[in-house]
Design a protein that fits this description.
single chain; 180 residues; alpha+beta; 2 domains; 5-stranded antiparallel β-sheet; 30% strand
Length: 180
């Protein structure tokens, strides 16, 4: 299956603004910019598993979308202790009801909760890859993930592809996929 079919499918997805094949030079620059992200707002180290999943993918696309595109249905950012145990997590809208009344959680803002009983010694923030639902077997794809990069890489991609830098409604992303 050609990447053209994948790009066309991305372009017609709800919330899509633009999609392009990701050339190696562009992807390497995004990786370089993302590798520079070491600390989060909590001052903890960051592990970007979403970037790792895109690096390990057989093919990639640069994608621009608005907030109506496939909102997350699972955790995107978690906090892990040194043993890999999840001690905190973001709460996407679809999970808010499940967690909002949990008396065993402490909220660190509107959409991030931690377990107050967890060992909060050394922790790392982990950005998880999100499975993309708009690509599948009919496009020749068996697995697709999406990475929304940090601001510097977002601005780089928008500038490179002529996307309005001043429109906060548009997000840039890297879509990684494996062929069937």
């Amino acid at each position: 299956m050609s990447d053209d079919k994948i790009i066309e499918k991305l372009k017609v997805a709800k919330g899509a603004r633009a999609a392009f094949p990701a050339d190696e030079e562009t992807f390497k620059e995004v990786c370089r910019l993302e590798d520079g992200i070491e600390d989060t707002t909590f001052g903890m180290p960051m592990e970007n598993r979403a970037l790792k999943a895109c690096v390990e993918s057989q093919g990639r696309a640069v994608f621009f979308c608005d907030y109506s595109f496939e909102p997350p249905d699972c955790h995107v950012m978690i906090m892990e202790d040194t043993g890999g145990k999840m001690v905190g997590f973001d709460v996407p809208d679809c999970m808010r009801e499940k967690y909002s009344s949990d008396p065993d959680l402490v909220w660190m803002g509107e959409d991030f909760a931690i377990d107050p009983n967890a060992d909060m010694g050394e922790c790392v923030m982990v950005m998880l890859p999100q499975e993309l639902k708009c690509l599948g077997e009919s496009e020749g794809v068996k697995r697709a993930v999406i990475l929304y990069p940090a601001l510097e890489a977002d601005q780089y991609l928008k500038k490179k592809y002529g996307i309005d830098l001043d429109d906060p409604q548009i997000a840039s992303a890297i879509v990684g996929f494996d062929y069937i």
